[in-house]
Amino acid sequence: MPALTVPDLTVLPRIPAPGLGDVVRPVRTVTTAPSGYEGEGFPVRRAFAGVDLRDLDPFIHMDQMGEVEYAPGEPKGTPWHPHRGFETVTYIIDGVFDHHDSHGGGGSITDGDTQWMTAGSGLLHIETPPEWLVQKGGLFHGVQLWVNLPRAEKLVTPRYQDLRAGRLGTLTTDDAGVLVRVIAGDVAGHPGPGSTHTPITLAHATLAPGARLELPWNVDFNALVYVLNGNGTVGVEQRPVSTGQLAVLGAGDFVTVQASTRQDSRTPELDVLVLGGRPIREPVAWAGPFVMNTKAEVMQAYEDFQKGRMGQIPAVHGAPTELQEG
């Protein structure tokens, strides 16, 4: 798992140990993501399936894309489609993904890069593997997270952020057994590059076998731990977790994750996403590519899309020109 790697963790800033009186966040639930297909048929794990939206708030949806080894001609993406009312965060661990949208955003991301698209008032976008990857095949693995926008910012002007791996905040633990990459928010005073409308923290941690992560966490945020690969435990209860499982945590001052001493030979380390944010606590009306506060607002979004008010497909060399609603 390349993502962003650091040859010598001992040179990184250290995460401070929990203080006297700090409380480990307990594990409330552990769920296993079902598998499915997205877009034109690339495999995903639906990380939040079966979890109450109130426990996820301010997040809406998350897919783990792959991990899959494509043969030549197999890589797939999504056709052009609309979004309104939230932000999409696409983090690529292995492989390459291209993005284009009707508001002028676009770029290609690879190991450890992130595309952060604020759909806001609405736009069209497309995500595809580059043509050379379609022809050649290869490993593909990433995550897409949907972050809700509060009512007052549902219709903000769309925005695109290209976050390169080299800009991520990088930290380690006292024993240098864990690499923490801060994508957005703040961990122990070290910020990530992602600029967010809704206050959140998003980090990717890689734990060596037997290593322990004790991560300070904003007491006003919820906290989720999703296992990208490997196995270990979460919380003071040392609740077992493994690939494709999501732990929803309760209140406390820090998050704790420990890697099992023995890992699968294919995935020799434990990789987790740790994420949380300040709950918005507003009604959610969600239908396909639109996340609003009321059903009427969703219906208005569909009407605006059908009447071309979310933009037109730009002329992008090599990109498909088909359009779908969700």
From TrEMBL:
Ligand binding (Fe cation): H81, H83, H125, E127
Ranges where the Pirin N-terminal domain occurs: 42-147
InterPro entries according to UniProt: Pirin, Pirin_C_dom, Pirin_N_dom, RmlC-like_jellyroll, RmlC_Cupin_sf
Residue ranges occupied by any Pirin C-terminal domain in the UniProt entry: 203-311
Gene3D superfamilies linked: Jelly Rolls
Cofactor(s) needed for function: Fe cation
One Gene Ontology molecular-function label: metal ion binding
Keyword Translocase: no
Name of this chain's protein: Pirin family protein
Species this protein is from: Nocardioides iriomotensis
Lineage, broadest ranks: Bacteria, Bacillati, Actinomycetota, Actinomycetes, Propionibacteriales
